[in-house]
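**Reference record**
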Amino acid sequence: MDEKIFKQRTKRLALRVIKVVEALPNSTTGQVIGRQVLRSATSVAANYRAACRAKSKADMKAKLGIVEEEADETLFWLELLVEAGLMPEKRLVDLMQETNEIVAMTVSSIKTLRSKK
């Protein structure tokens, strides 16, 4: 995937999660999980930008590893929002699918980098 398009997708993920967090109930659980998913989703976009400016393939691979971890963590928190009954699944299904795709594409990029030794 094109770097520019993937930057847009990761930023769009962060913006969509911001809207989800704003819609969460103002409960302790909603606030705690909301902060976690907000942190991880925005980290996906920020770390992908950093990976695009990597100084070497090793640096890029390391930064993409962070993107993978944060995207997977975002997926976990989104699943938890549904399973805890804080957000209906139908509202998050597309967002979870997009997050899954970002994880898969990041893993694929890491594998490609590893094979280019």
